[in-house]
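Feature request disguised as a bug: please show the residue count (442) next to NtaA/DmoA family FMN-dependent monooxygenase in the output. Example input:
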Amino acid sequence: MTPQHRPRKQVHLAAHFPGVNNTTVWTDPESGSQIDFSSFRHLARTAERGRFDFFFLAEGLRLRERKGHIHDLDVVGRPESLTVLAALAAVTDHLGLAATVNTTFNEPYELARRFATLDHLSGGRAAWNVVTSSDAFTGENFRRGGYLDHADRYTRAAEFVQLARALWDSWPPAEPPRTLTHTGPQFDITARSTLPRPPQGHPVVIQAGDSDEGREFAARHADIIFSRHSTPEAGRAFHADVRRRLRKYGRGPDDLKIMPAAGFVLGDTDADAEERAVAIRHQQVGPQTAIALLENVWGRDLSGYDPDGPLPDIDPVPDSDVVRGWAHSGDRFGIASRWRAVAEEKKLSIRELAVELTARQAFVGSPATVAAAIDEAVRTDVADGFILVPHLTPGGLDDFVDRVVPLLQERGVFRTEYQGPTLRHHLGLPAPRPLPDEEVTA
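Example output, currently without the count:
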């Protein structure tokens, strides 16, 4: 088939409900509740009106703290995701429903049952974003505490997902349920499912992570990767790398969708949108947030520093709990050194550096410019689509659905109607292959 006759690559879109990060502009007069059901309902219905693939919720198992006090970004609280999605299943008809749930502080039998329940209640629209944690601070909320070594988090996650899939497969259609027996490094169970196989076979599995072990985990287990890349070049390199890894697990290139998080700012003109974007970024990263970001790396109380002044000239403290619940990766001294180099090269203050460091990929411009940029990114394999993160809740997606989606539809790269009942239909994913018989014993 010649390039000019090849079908246009279709764009996949999802909507992230912002409320567990510094994306939301809390001070905007249009910013609504983060916990009222009306907010979740409005954003989900807007996403469904826009024919999006799914609605995505993050997870917060413990409120972040700064010097023993709840951080400003968490004072609204964090509802439990699967409860919210079960309620949304009753007020939506087609939209996929994705929850982030941790494999460290849950058990396979219970979680497989909860996702199977959501898949049955929604008619095949459930998705699970698999995340890991070795965070002892979060673990204090749980019986086992921070028992899990960092090196074991993906070992547990892989065994956890394998068990969940086996449980979903253990009650085939028109057959009695089978008993699942499993003995492994993390789990030793004998279980019988209380539900028949879910409508999708397996709820869609999403993985968020960019490390080498995260990429390998996704290539073997995931249907979607929720990634974060700030440049097209980085996105294409990630896309190609993960696609290469699929082959070793007998998977094809269409078996996994790569969907980075992305912000967006619309304006009547590109210049108008650019001006709005600068203002929004500075609203998202206030002075206290900027200082807290540095404290997380420096491990020191930096409240005496001016957010609009230079970075601290003191060294980090290796082990500290000044800020708790915010993950940081790598060596504190190395991170601080790199941040100083960036700030010095670009003449950035603490707050300006924080604005730059926390920026995610964003589409900024008129509706026509944004539609063209999304189409180009998908066409050139930067990604297969995007999980859009609005800066306002609950109405932040309205403008995109009203002004950008019709242009994508005119280009022939986005659906005008849903073509199937399940989330796997929306994403064009194959039916899951049941695990080998030896994984499930009668």
